[in-house]
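Hi Prof. W.,

I finally got the Glycosyltransferase 2-like domain-containing protein prediction working! I wasn't sure whether to trim anything, so I left the full sequence exactly as given:
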Amino acid sequence: MSRTVPEIQTSMVVATLGRSHELEGLFNSLVGQDRDDFEVIVVDQNDDDRLAPVLMAFAGKLEIIHLRTDKRGVCRARNLGAARARGRWLIFPDDDCWYPTDFLSRVDALRAAHPADFYCGRPTDTTGRTIMGDFATEPMPIERPTIWTTLIEWMLVVKKPAFDEAGGFDIAIGPGSGTPWGAYEIQDLALKLLATDRHGWYDPAFTGHHPEDRGDQTTPAAVAKMRVYSSGLGYVMRKHGYRFVDYLPRLLRPLAGVAIYTFAGKPGMARRSWNIVAGRWFGWRAAPRTMTATRAKAS
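And this is what came out:
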């Protein structure tokens, strides 16, 4: 390393598979940060050395730890990286996201204004437009009723002791897990944090950037992906003790979409909506009842 690294305060754990140059955008945004008391832990799940040129190019600019693993799954990789982290705080960037230059300073401001154990912000494009789902427009505590509109994995900032006490990410959930539960690993983690009496805070003014998927959402591959992601919702909600009455609207909304799109002459979107219903129903039915936690009155 050509630079003197201060005491590490934050560890950024980047799980990556099948990508290489995409990490350059993330790394460039980290080089541009207005502070350098952080490390980047790259958990490399590739079978080849495709990352070598990228890591070498930034070796003198960032404090990078390169971990290799033959175990697939984004949550396995995140947990592996977190176990090696030296920072008091953990962040889990996607390998193709990037952050504003004052991102870490804004974390400091959040901690000063709203002391908590974990934080999250809003995903946006470079114009500030919300992407990747519906997110709350006002700052608020992250609680059981609000976790569905206040969380996304690559904007999470969490105390390492809190992450460890909660058991980290559930390796049975998320991309590459080898299970039907393809998403909602961040909500699962937040619910475990809340169950250990940890507190979270969301601020929509705390933002980061990510490429937006503008592809055809009605292709067989896209529909299959949506079904697997939808299964994760049912699994997580039942695992953490949400009542069926709280879950029912999440079945009825896409079911209504089937009818609306059918009558509108959009069979592709109707098929997509039906697979969301099927995935959510499967996820709820298949979640082990023995995992059910304290019942919640609201979703």
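Residues 220-291 form one domain. Does that look reasonable to you?

Thanks,
D.
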